[in-house]
Amino acid sequence: MLTDRPEVRFVPGAVLYREGSDEPLTIASAEAIADGPGWRIRFRDITTREAADTLRQAYLETAIRPEADLARGEVYWHEVVGVTVTGIDGTELGVVQDIYRVAENEVYVVGGGAYGSFDLPAVRAFIRIFAPRRGEIVVDAEALDLRPPRERRTDPDRPRAPRRTAHKRKAPAAQTADPTAPETETAAPDAVQPDDAS
């Protein structure tokens, strides 16, 4: 389970579900692991170690009740992704494609509009209307200093500038042996020659 509030989610009596299953798992006790990430959770419905092992590396889900779980003005990220972002003047700026967090602030990655891809900090200075459940996010594009990406103009009559290429250094030519020179056998000066004692 991915959550920002494990101490609220993992309370005795809370019901979780194994991903893709309708079988409820009621929490009997839960505690944060002191020397590492994660939580140790015991379920009333799991009574053997073998049954508990089936939950290893499994995602757990919970029923989402936004009206009960969230404070006024809060939303889940999956409710924001896919919402169209418009400017105050009604210009469509793009769609929220992703969300990430910087310190305590969320930043929406908006793309697909006339301004290309840009980051939208989730702060009042930029967002004028935030209603993702209605499919509406209105921002002050001037405050964001958004400018459309420059178009590359191609003038067919203008000659193209020559491309500079890096000159590759040639490897030193390998020295070739003179085929007419007599073959000689050389030994390293400190090499020890074996005795021909039989």
What does this protein look like?
The strands form two sheets. A six-stranded mixed beta sheet has the order 8-7-6-5-10-9, with no helix packed on it. A four-stranded antiparallel beta sheet has the order 3-2-1-4, with no helix packed on it. The chain has helices at 6-9, 49-53, 66-69, 77-80, and strands spanning 15-18, 24-32, 39-43, 60-61, 84-87, 92-102, 105-113, 116-121, 127-131, 136-139. It is elongated, with a radius of gyration of 34 Å. Among the domains are: 6-63; 77-139, SH3 type barrels, CATH 2.30.30. The protein is built from four helices and ten strands, in the order αβββαβααββββββ. It is mainly beta and 198 residues long.
Indicate the topology.
Layout: H1 6-9, E1 15-18, E2 24-32, E3 39-43, H2 49-53, E4 60-61, H3 66-69, H4 77-80, E5 84-87, E6 92-102, E7 105-113, E8 116-121, E9 127-131, E10 136-139
Parallel strand pairs: 5-10
Antiparallel strand pairs: 1-2, 1-4, 2-3, 5-6, 6-7, 7-8, 9-10
